[in-house]
Design brief:
The protein has two domains: about 200 residues, 2-enoyl-CoA Hydratase, Chain A, domain 1; about 60 residues, Orthogonal Bundle (Lyase 2-enoyl-coa Hydratase, Chain  A, domain 2), CATH 1.10.12. The chain is α/β, with parallel strands linked by helices and about 280 residues long. The strands form two sheets. Strands 1-2-3-4-6-9 form a six-stranded mixed sheet, with helices on both faces. A three-stranded mixed sheet has the order 5-7-8. The protein contains eleven helices and nine strands.
């Protein structure tokens, strides 16, 4: 496995096929500054090249997920002028958007564990993850418009997650809501009491680990193509993925294991035996 990027504001822990990625600016409720954003992008690049990691867990240090962008830093950047056609604010925002895009398309299954504050970019991460677990006490929202700016890079993912009508309502009112509402709106797929969130996480991770990693990666790729390809191209793309899996070692092993009434190889050695 190639070396993890060195990070100051992200805590990275590899546990076998799992990467725990913790936003680690607890004194600022894990608000995203430029360095944290660059570190996140570097970790996403690392994950895109990793064959060993199957699950990525996002959470925040100190009881908060992520309070969004670092407003103080962003305010200072507003004073920077465009020089030689280079707009530093636009470039930072564009870089964040590209990291979000690459994160959404990672082959790994991504899980967000939302506790405490999850505003702005934090809510964006919650909508980017494949699976989101939210504590009922969490506080979420898109407050950007109340600050006179726009949720520019997270808006597409919120729309995809919960639909255009609800996304517009949340963004154009700056509504703040709790974990129960996040579950109701479709941001999270799991809602639990704060003291049960770690147990819920481990149960979800165990379920993901029972699935073939290549099958999960291909399934993500198929689902993320929906609406981006004409119907016949979508059929062809999906058929190609299915053929690759069926002919591949993982597909052969999974179907043979089913016929032989045993666990497939990728489940061996998991906690609880992959049961």
């Amino acid at each position: 496995m190639h070396e993890l990027p060195l990070c100051e504001f992200l805590r990275l822990e590899v546990e076998g096929p799992r990467l725990n990625l913790t936003f680690n600016r607890p004194d600022q409720r894990n608000a995203i500054n430029s360095q944290m954003g660059a570190e996140f992008a570097a970790v996403v690049d690392w994950l895109a090249a990793s064959k060993e990691v199957r699950v990525v867990v996002l959470r925040g240090a100190g009881g908060h997920f992520c309070a969004g962008g670092d407003i103080k830093e962003r305010k200072n950047m507003a004073e920077e002028s465009v020089s030689d056609g280079v707009d530093p604010i636009m470039e930072r925002n564009r870089s964040a958007g590209l990291a979000f895009l690459k994160f959404e398309n990672l082959p790994q299954t991504t899980i967000a564990l939302v506790e405490g504050s999850a505003f702005g970019g934090g809510m964006g991460y919650a909508c980017l993850a494949d699976i989101t677990i939210v504590a009922d006490t969490a506080k979420m929202g898109m407050p950007e418009t109340t600050l006179g700016v726009a949720p520019a890079q997270i808006a597409p993912y919120v729309v995809k997650r919960i639909g255009l009508t609800r996304a517009r309502q949340l963004a154009l009112t700056g509504e703040r809501f709790d974990g129960a509402k996040a579950y109701e709106y479709g941001i999270a797929q799991y809602l639990c009491a704060e003291q049960e969130i770690d147990q819920t996480l481990e149960e979800v991770v165990a379920s993901v680990m029972r699935c073939g990693p290549e099958a999960n990666a291909a399934t993500k790729a198929i689902m993320l193509k929906v609406g981006t390809l004409p119907d016949e191209e979508m059929v062809r793309f999906s058929a190609g993925k299915f053929s690759e899996l069926n002919r591949g070692d993982e597909g052969k092993e999974g179907q043979t294991a089913f016929a032989e009434k045993r666990k497939p190889a990728w489940q061996l050695g998991l906690k609880g035996g992959g049961s």
